[in-house]
Amino acid sequence: MSNVLIIEGGAVSESSLAPAFAQLDCTTTYVASIAQAKRLGFNGFQLLICDLVLEDGLGVELVSQQHSCPVMILSKTKDSASIIDAMRAGVADFVISPFIDTDFSTALERVFQKSAARKSLATPAVSNTNDNTAQNEPLSGMIGSSEAMQTVYSRVRKAAPTRSTILIRGETGTGKELIARAIHDASDRAENPFIAVNCAAIPDTLIESELFGHEKGAFTGAASKRAGLIEAAEGGTLFLDEIGELPSEAQARLLRFIQESEIRRIGSNEAHRVDVRLVAATHRDLKKLTTTGGFRPDLYYRINVVRIDLPSLKLRGNDLLEIAEFLLDKAATRHEKAGLHLSPEAIQIINNYPWPGNVRELENVIERAAIMCEGLEINGEALEIDSDIYENHRFNADILTPFTGNYLDLQQPTHSNSHSSGNVITNLDATPDTSEELSLEDYFQRFVLENQEHMNETELAKKLGISRKCLWERRQRLEIPRAKSGNKSSDTAL
User: Fold this and answer.
1) How many domains does the chain have?
2) What are the φ/ψ torsions at residue 363 (nearest 5 degrees)?
């Protein structure tokens, strides 16, 4: 159980914070001013939460006045300068109200995980690279022990204590920011700011100003001097997510920052040095982009010092169900549905679904199922996954050996008929000619045309391992005509 001290001056209501504290089993103590907090003392608390502006001072000032616990700031303002100043001061997190329960809960969990990671820095797991077992154990706040993730954990622990630039590659939703935070928390910069920037979310015309800052009057609308996000990360870590989306001008400026550890604000003639560790991430093939002009080769080689490749969720084996159960427990607590669990059918679907959106998609599916399910058991229907993706994946995985043209050993139909007529194959046990390589669509089309005279739509779909709906859709897309209605074995139209 964690003890939390809250200095609340009116930015948020006590009731809006209560659900998150209950979920994480926290005890809370509320005071109205900094003076009251000082009289109470900070020892014995694992977290300090306070408003940005209080009646007797600024919440960020508490970072320098006490060092016993991390500080989280709550604010009604969305002013980026205030956020930058707070992060530069060393606050653990900054949450803007109004927010939904999940926003605050996520921030709260993140702070506790970060604090736990800092406490683990003194353990041999970080410094002893000869201990393979310790090196491969899951990082704080992360789930999964698959072989692919063990490799990730090992590389994080080896690279984190260094000052080297790190490039994280992985599909959307694989947890690139989680890895970046783990790198920061396991480094000697853990007590300093971690600034995350999504390069794809900032307009090209603003990205340089956001990163490097600007002087007053540098451009239309620059009414005052402003520090950039790189300066805000002084002494800490700058995480550039989707770095492949940076425009060419920003790439050139970033290259100088990496090479010289110095920046120059827009409109300024003076450069000044900064101490910032860069961690970048992308879902794109940057090396390929360098050949097409989409990314500077010199920048690519500068950021690709240590590379960490995150596996997609479908390649993480038993991690999948472990993550699903973890997310389900969180959802059950959040929605007050104790005892919520997955049915065997739901477990099978989760295991067989390819998860193109990775962990982010899985989290959304679990959240939706927890809300929409009847009772405490989540069945396959409640998951509401994309049926087309699911059926296509099953067809790919279970029907064909990829692009070899080899048929699976299909069972003989219930009406045994071993003779052939023309090009129609009626003996499904017969060995087909595999000398010709077949694509997935070629196989589907040939199988349907060769067997629809003696098999109805239900039988065809069953043999192919897909639903009748999927069979009908594929017929329409590939323009495969139905057998004549005179066929005795044909069933009703879809």
Assistant:
1) 4
2) -60, -45
Residues 182 and 302 in one domain: yes
Average pLDDT, the chain: 78
Question: Does residue 490 belong to any structural domain of this protein?
Answer: no
Q: In whole angstroms, what is the distance from residue 344 CA to residue 323 CA?
A: 16
Nearest to 111 by CA among 176, 173, 49: 49
Positive or negative: CA dihedral 365, 367, 371, 377: positive
> Based on the domain organization, do 179 and 296 belong to the same domain?
yes
Pick the closest to residue 203 from 257, 254, 247 (CA basis): 247
Q: Which of 144, 82, 167, 117 is nearest to 325 (CA)?
A: 144
Please report which confidence band the pLDDT of residue 282 belongs to, taking 50, 70 and 90 as the band edges: very high
Written as one string, the DSSP assignment of 84-127 is: HHHHHHT-SEEEESS--HHHHHHHHHHHHHHHHHHHGGGSHHHH
Residue 305 counted as domain residue: yes
165 with 106, same domain?
Answer: no
User: Are 340 and 274 in a shared domain?
Assistant: no
pLDDT at 74 over 80: yes
Domain containing residue 82: CATH number: 3.40.50.2300
pLDDT for position 114? 65
- 75 DSSP 8-state letter: E
214 and 286 in a single domain? The answer is yes
pLDDT number for residue 165:
95
Check pLDDT > 50 for residue 2: yes
List the 166-169 sheet strands across, edge first.
Answer: 194-198, 237-241, 277-282, 166-169, 306-309
pLDDT of 346 > 80? The answer is yes
> Which alpha helices (DSSP H) does 318-408 contain, by range?
319-334, 344-352, 358-372, 380-383, 387-398
How far is the C-alpha of 208 from the C-alpha of 200, rounded, in Å? 13
Is residue 95 domain-shared with residue 183, that is, in the same domain?
no
pLDDT reported for residue 240: 95
Q: How far apart are CA 107 and CA 125, in angstroms?
A: 26
Q: Which of 364, 385, 406 represents a domain boundary (last residue)?
A: 385
Q: Between the CA of residue 192 and those of 55, 233, 291, what are the distances in Å? A: 27, 8, 37
Q: What is the pLDDT of residue 324?
A: 92
Q: What is the pLDDT of residue 125?
A: 38
- Do 241 and 330 fall within a single domain? no
Its pTM stands at 0.58
pLDDT number for residue 88? 67
| pLDDT reading at 290 higher than 60 | yes
Q: Which helix (H) or strand (E) holds 58?
A: strand 57-58
What secondary structure letter does DSSP report for 21?
A: H
In this structure, is residue 484 part of a structural domain? Answer: no
List the domain range (segments joined by +) for residue 359: 313-385
**One domain, residues 135 and 256:** yes
pLDDT higher than 80, residue 123: no
Boundary (domain end) residue, out of 93, 118, 143: 118
